[in-house]
Amino acid sequence: MPFTNADYLPSYEELTVPELELTSAALRAGAHHFGKYCDSQCKEFMLCSKEERDPRKCLAEGKEVTRCGFEFFGKVKRNCYQEFTKYFQCIDHSDRQMSLRNCRKTQAVFDKCIKDKLDQDRPELGHFAAVRIHHTDRPKPQPKPHQLPERIVDPPDFSKLPPPKNPYPPTQI
Membrane-spanning regions, if any (predicted)? Predict the structure, then answer.
């Protein structure tokens, strides 16, 4: 997407948000519950990015996803710290791909803690792939009017021109 001097670019302060400083194993361990906990915020961000096709217009929605992530992982830390730590350490040490299949026992303990303390079930298989309707308060963006290029000049009417002269006379065989 090319930019010109007339385009608005957000300031550094607008772009700066605190980051969730978690390892990939911790994010993988909490991903299912995080996805369910922050479902509305994530969908709002994805809807904005698809409709607007301009990341500058979706900064507020992205910040809301980050805020929700801090809220969720803060609750996990306060309520299920030991269970979560054992689960993500198991994932981290399971194999190179950080497979979940080797850690089903610690996953069950973590899922039970989330259910007991945060009252949230683990999403069933296929939950995130299922079609679900998302309602938003954000107005639908209006498409820019399509500007057609200038009209091409009509070609000359060749039927009114005399036939061309053949510069090469026919050869006799």
Answer: none
